[in-house]
Specification:
Layout lengths: L4 H5 L4 H5 L7 H16 L3 E5 L5 H12 L3 E5 L2 H21 L14 E3 L9 H10 L6 H12 L14 H5 L20 H10 L3 E5 H9 L10 E4 L5 H8 L2 E3 L1 H14 L5 H17 L6 E3 L7 H21 L11 H26 L5 E7 L6 E7 L3 H9 L4 E6 L15 H7 L5 E5 L5 H4 E5 L11 H16 L3 E5 L2 H11 L7 E3 L5 H10 L4 E5 L15 E4 L10 H12 L4 H19 L9 E5 L3 H4 L1 H8 L5 E3 L5 H6 L7
Parallel strand pairs: 1-10, 1-11, 2-4, 2-5, 3-4, 5-10, 12-17, 12-18, 13-15, 13-16, 14-15, 16-17
Antiparallel strand pairs: 6-9, 7-8, 8-9
Helix pairs in contact: 3-4, 4-5, 10-11, 12-15, 13-14, 14-15, 16-17, 19-20, 22-23, 23-25
Bound molecules: iron/sulfur cluster.
Iron/sulfur cluster binds next to helix 6 and helix 9.
């Protein structure tokens, strides 16, 4: 008789037996029960489970007990690695030791694999061809990659002790556009295909959202068929699904296409010149409109450079049709291989033509926009549907009997007693029906945390905001003795305030951009009383437990920017349906983001600290009240003086 799920989590249960000191939390057990019911009865499940609930065990135990083939997708590499290396082996051992029939009494019978996108793996054929063309490697990093390539067993780029530049790695990666599949002499030992085969026979497949949603867009092929899905860090799903559906046209994409063609064919250099001029013309036209992101339709001059690129692509396509056999760099094994190479090259050209078509004639459901790429700061043209709900409904939620969506921040109210607490997530992802739950936190926020909201006259939209916010930041940092993240919604605001306060703050300070993200975090963790000014990616996924982080200052309510074309299109779509876009989209988006920032602070039952929100609108508006009511129940304070007593009792430990 197998254990019930409650028994697995009980003090004498399977988990406690392999994990000394394990103590299940009420929210964890309830979540596990719900997930198991969803798997058994074929229902989708949505659970918000904050830090400390132990949500990964709460879905892993039912996942492993189900005996079904399950894909677990996460947003961050850190969580992927934690699941694959720590949590899953531990739960497998626990269930196997307790004789759970689903794991056959033997942990080795459960097959688990972590699959990454094709570009993470080495292509043996590309490496071999590159080496046969040259006697010595073109650079020291390439030399080290060649050495690694000849002895690696996995071909996974993560094994490299350094991060190669994308230009160099692209020359030897297993990208689909360069792969001739079964015509390749290394097909049987190919790292990527071996991994894909491993996934075919795996019980649990761990992936990231980028790969998971790309697989949905491609209609499968990257992942084998699966029975059930767990989407962890589900608040990122809309973003990743949109990214997977986005068509891009840029210097980087065109450069990649040409380099691929050069690798395969004796392609005339005149095409490089032609495309360089075309792209330069496009970039200078795109730069005429101010801003880093704007709707393409705002640029009336863009047709001409796009048409020029279209005709260059057309010429390239014609050249390929005329030369696909005669211009091959390496003699093919047979005609079929030559045809495969031609089709792969054609696919890259057609993708660029389609990107131009979609940019020039977006449908009612899609928009086209211009954006400065984070990687190289150059402008690119993008197009994508602004609403991914129908796509996800058709490709995922209607097809898979049970999908678990979980995250520390997906609810737009504090309790499931509030109606429509997951409406924002359900609407944006196309989930029509699901069982819902907010797992109670094991933390005593009222005791462990203080929450300060700036008075109403401090308004981030006013010109005097930096002048008013500066003294509040200084006072907060004085009370907490540094040990703080100061988080901003924009880089411009970060720089402005950093410059205005840096001379007056006595603690070690750094701002984002001064070092890499990893080194900044290392600096923060090892520097007593450190203060880090940051934006963007520092709002989430960062774990600093203990005294080193005792204060999180947030500059404003983090509404999405209405100038962002995707946001504007989503707002318009709500308005067109007679729904107030501000309430339905802006407010819940701000709640999710604010909870992410808030979540940096309390990471264990012994953590203590303060969150200070410098946006006075939060305390004086109706929407501010809605947003604040969805946050963890920290004790509100109206004066920063109240922190003297609060911080007094851990003052001794804080150095
Ligand atoms: S099968 Fe494809 S990815 Fe694998 S080594 Fe051959 S060409 Fe490269």
């Amino acid at each position: 008789m197998p254990d019930t799920i409650d028994t697995v989590f009980s003090p004498e249960g399977a988990l406690a037996r392999v994990l000394p000191g394990f103590e299940a939390r009420a929210g964890q057990v309830q979540m596990a029960q719900l997930v198991e019911r969803g798997f058994l009865e074929g229902m989708h499940t949505i659970v918000e489970a904050g830090t400390g609930v132990g949500k990964s065990f709460a879905y892993l135990v039912p996942a492993l007990r189900s005996g079904k083939k399950i894909v677990i997708s996460t947003g961050t590499i850190a969580l992927q690695e934690q699941l694959f290396e720590k949590d899953i082996p531990l739960v497998v051992r626990a269930l196997a030791a307790s004789g759970d029939t689903a794991v056959s009494g033997n942990a080795r019978d459960v097959r688990v694999t972590l699959v990454k996108g094709r570009n993470h793996y080495l292509c043996k054929q590309k490496l071999e061809r590159l080496r046969s063309d040259r006697l010595i490697a073109p650079s020291r990093t390439m030399e080290r990659m060649w050495e690694w390539g000849s002895q690696t067993a996995s071909g996974d780029r993560a094994e490299l002790p350094f991060l190669p530049s994308s230009d160099e790695w692209e020359q030897i990666d297993a990208d689909a556009d360069d792969c001739v599949g079964e015509f390749c002499e290394h097909f049987r030992e190919c790292f990527f295909f071996k991994k894909r085969d491993e996934a075919k026979y795996a019980d649990i497949i761990v992936v990231n959202h980028a790969l998971f949603f790309l697989d949905l867009v491609m209609g499968g092929g990257l992942l084998p068929a699966y029975d059930l899905v767990v989407l962890d860090e589900a608040h990122q799903c809309e973003r990743w699904a949109t990214a997977a559906l986005t068509a891009r046209l840029s210097r980087a994409t065109v450069g990649r296409m040409l380099r691929k063609l050069h690798r395969t064919y004796e392609l005339p250099k005149s095409f490089d010149v032609e495309f360089e001029e075309g792209i330069r013309g496009l970039e200078s036209t795109l730069a005429r409109i101010p801003g880093d992101k704007y709707p393409l339709r705002a640029n009336e001059d863009v047709s001409q450079p796009l048409e020029r690129l279209r005709s260059s692509l057309f010429e390239l396509e014609n050249w390929l049709y005329a030369n696909w056999h005669g211009a091959l760099r390496k003699k093919p094994e047979n005609d079929a291989e030559a045809e495969r190479r031609r089709d792969l090259s054609l696919r890259a050209i057609l993708a660029h033509q389609a990107a131009i078509d979609r940019a020039q004639m977006p449908s009612d459901e899609a928009i086209a926009w211009v954006e400065r790429a984070e990687s190289d700061g150059r402008f690119e043209v993008n197009s994508a549907p602004y609403d991914v709900s129908e796509f996800l409904d058709q490709t995922l939620f209607s097809r898979t009997p049970s999908v678990v969506l979980t995250s520390a921040t997906i609810a737009n109210a504090a309790s499931t007693r509030n109606q429509g607490v997951f409406d924002f997530l359900k609407r944006s992802l196309g989930v029509h029906d699901a069982q819902e739950f907010i797992a109670p936190s094991p933390f005593d926020y009222h005791q462990q945390a203080r929450f300060f909201v700036a008075p109403s006259q401090v308004n981030p939209k006013a010109v005097d905001f930096a002048r008013k916010a500066g003294p509040l930041i200084e006072e907060c940092l004085d009370r907490s003795r540094g040990r703080a993240f100061v988080l901003f919604t924009s880089y411009a605001r970060l720089r402005e305030i950093y410059a205005s306060v840096r001379e007056r703050i006595a603690f070690p300070m750094r701002m984002q951009g001064e070092l890499s993200r990893t080194r900044l975090l290392e600096w923060f963790r090892t520097t007593p009383h450190a203060v880090l000014f940051a934006t963007g990616s520092f709002w989430e996924g960062i774990d600093v437990a203990g005294d080193r982080l005792s204060c999180v200052i947030i500059d404003r309510l983090p509404f999405p920017s209405p100038a962002d074309p995707l946001v504007a299109a989503r707002m318009e779509a709500f308005e067109a349906r007679g729904i107030d876009g501000f309430d339905a989209y802006m407010v819940p988006s701000a709640i999710v983001r604010l909870k992410q920032g808030f979540g940096r602070l309390i990471r264990s039952t012994t953590d203590r600290g303060v969150v200070a929100l410098l946006d006075g609108r939060a305390a004086s508006t109706h929407y501010g009240a809605t947003i604040l009511s969805a946050l963890p129940p920290a004790k509100r304070i109206t004066h920063l003086d109240e922190l003297v007593e609060f911080f007094d009792f851990d003052g001794e430990r804080s150095g």
